[in-house]
Amino acid sequence: MYIIAGLGNPTSQYEGTRHNVGFDVIDALADKYNISVDGRKSRAFIGKGIIEGQKVILVKPQTYMNLSGESIRGLVDYYKIDEEQELLVIYDDVSLDVGQLRIRKKGSAGGHNGIKSIIANLGTQVFPRIKVGVGEKPKKYDLADYVLGHFSKADREIMEEGYQKAVKAIEMILKGELEAAMNEYNRKVKPKEA
Fold it and tell me: Which of 60, 138, 159, 175 has the smallest C-beta neighbourhood within 10 Å, fewest atoms?
């Protein structure tokens, strides 16, 4: 069984913000596989289903980003999963271009408070993750203001493509093709010629 957790902030004021792309990927996955993410456990919305022959629990922690690890720790313990193999975390990354993916088997938090919280609560940096690029913050912007801001119309369209790529990457990972997913999606995508 896999726990696939998308990070974000609860309440409607954060919907569609850069910091909530983890939730948006979970929504795209839930739509494709007709999984209702409306159950509640360990301070998260959860939905159970089957993707690529694997039992999955889709998770949207409701603890606010900086406490994401508390919710995820509770779910990892309750479902007795091996976080190094069966936990997949999806979140925003300001060091990647809009819609760009980066898949990793492990790593530091890289300044991301949601990941810091997960590492602190699990006591390990070893868990697969998919970072979804939201673009670099402009020079004069405060980081918190930037990640809690909304995408432009053009960026939103690119993000929709990014969410679909993330769904495909998740499908590959669930088939045991993590390395192949990294090879496929960690490449820098060249901008389309006009």
Answer: 138
The reply to whether 150 belongs to the active site is no
- Rounded to whole angstroms, the Cα distance separating 155 from 12 reads 20
Which pTM value belongs to this model? 0.95
**Residue 158 maps to a domain:** yes
Q: pLDDT digits over 69-110, tens only?
A: 999 999 999 999 999 999 999 999 999 999 999 999 999 999
- Residues in a beta bridge with 150: 17
Question: 2, 4, 9, 19: which is the annotated catalytic residue?
Answer: 19
8 A C-beta contact, residue 91 and residue 129: yes
Q: What one-character-per-residue DSSP string does 39-52 give?
A: EEETTEEEEEEEET
CATH number at residue 58: 3.40.50.1470
Strands 44-51 and 54-61: antiparallel
DSSP letters for 17-35:
BGGGHHHHHHHHHHHHHT-
**DSSP-assigned beta bridge partners for residue 162:** none
The answer to whether 131 and 93 have CB atoms below 8 angstroms apart is: yes
Positive/negative CA dihedral, 43, 142, 108, 191:
positive
Token output for 79 = 């479902």
Range of the domain at 168: 2-185
Number of structural domains in the chain: 1
